[in-house]
Design a protein that fits this description.
Dna Ligase, domain 1, 3 domains, two-stranded antiparallel sheet, about 10% strand
């Protein structure tokens, strides 16, 4: 019994010591695990990806693999802890969810936010603006600088009439689809997608009110755009566009040839001409409105909204002639009779002779 009295207290003390050490170990391990969790959490949610220099926009081309996406990421951003980033990417199943596009990030971004943006394809749209364009080639060039589809693929699509004939357009008229404005597009837009976007915007533009006004003039939207394209080339003065539009509508209603000089420039593919001569009027082209009555086959440029609306709201008058004023003002003189017109035209010819403008 004496032995037990001696041993038991010692054993109990040892057990108590072991329990205390285990508690201490547990506390230390828990603290370390918590610290590790905090470190990992802060790494995942805190800044971990920084732009290289001024670049903060990531482009992932269509068809990119996970490996190619990583190459794009690492060449554009400084990733602090690539192994951890790739581990998180795998945990978030990004290798199977690579989406092409243009992604703009802040100056510093967390792993989780960065990957969430890429996995869900939350692109930052690009603004595409075009105006003052004359041809489909120029449309393609303007747009091809902004989206993944280059100008070559865009023009190839636009020159293939079967791509839009079902929508009621021909190669000569399809330029009317592109209403000058600023549009939001996703960078990875391809040629068919671009055209569908523009067609949607075109149909939105030609709302009930505009269609009603076109109908009152017995014109289709394409015909309105064709007249508007000529008006655009005739004057730099917005306040006389509706009057010039009225002249052309009067000539159409009377069955007269439009005799529009801008169509001659288009037929000759020479927009630098400042003086149309008799020899120019002999060009053999369906766009020669001196030889062919009625409208040309299609718009001679991408007409402005201002000119389209000027045609729809054309002045009601009985002018059938106009010629530039001989004062370099950019304005025109309007006439009801050929005799009156010839008088003003003679004055303008003398003005050009005086300034030695011969072509």
């Amino acid at each position: 019994m004496l032995f037990l009295h001696i041993i038991i207290p010692k054993f109990t003390t040892h057990i108590a010591f072991m329990t205390k050490r285990r508690k201490t170990t547990l506390i230390i391990v828990t603290a370390l695990l918590f610290a590790a969790f905090i470190l990992i959490f802060s790494t995942l949610t805190g800044p971990g990806i920084y732009p290289r220099g001024w670049k903060n926009t990531l482009y992932i081309p269509t068809g990119s693999t996970y490996s190619q996406a990583l190459d794009s990421i690492y060449s554009t951003f400084d990733v602090r802890g690539k192994k951890l980033f790739e581990w998180v990417a795998r945990m978030r199943k990004y290798p199977g969810l690579v989406k092409p596009g243009r992604y703009v990030f802040d100056k510093k971004t967390s792993f989780l936010k960065f990957l969430s943006t890429l996995r869900t394809g939350r692109q930052t749209p690009v603004n595409v603006t075009f105006s003052n364009v004359r041809t489909l080639y120029q449309v393609a060039a303007r747009v091809g600088d902004k989206i993944e589809a280059d100008s070559t693929s865009l023009i190839a699509y636009l020159l293939k009439e079967s791509n839009y004939s079902a929508d009621g357009f021909r190669k000569e008229t399809v330029i009317s689809v592109f209403i000058p404005n600023t549009y939001e597009l996703y960078w990875n837009t391809q040629a068919p997608g671009f055209f569908e976007k523009m067609l949607k915007e075109y149909r939105k533009f030609w709302n009930g009110q505009r269609l009603r006004k076109a109908g009152e003039e017995r014109l289709t939207p394409v015909e309105v755009s064709t007249v508007a394209s000529i008006v655009d080339e005739e004057t730099i003065r917005p306040d006389e566009k509706a009057r010039i539009a009225g002249v052309y509508l009067n000539r159409l209603k009377r069955g007269m040839a439009l005799q529009a000089d801008p169509t001659i420039k288009f037929a000759l593919n020479d927009f630098t001409l400042t003086r149309i001569l008799y020899k120019h009027l002999q060009v053999d082209s369906p766009y020669n409105t001196y030889k062919h009555p009625g409208l040309p086959p299609g718009p001679i440029n991408c007409p402005s909204v201002e000119s389209i609306d000027a045609v729809l709201d054309a002045e009601k008058h009985d002018y059938i002639y106009f010629v530039a004023k001989a004062d370099n003002s950019g304005y025109h003189v309007f006439s009801r009779t050929l005799t009156e017109h010839n008088h003003y035209a003679s004055e303008y010819q003398k003005y050009l002779d005086k300034r030695k403008i011969t072509n």
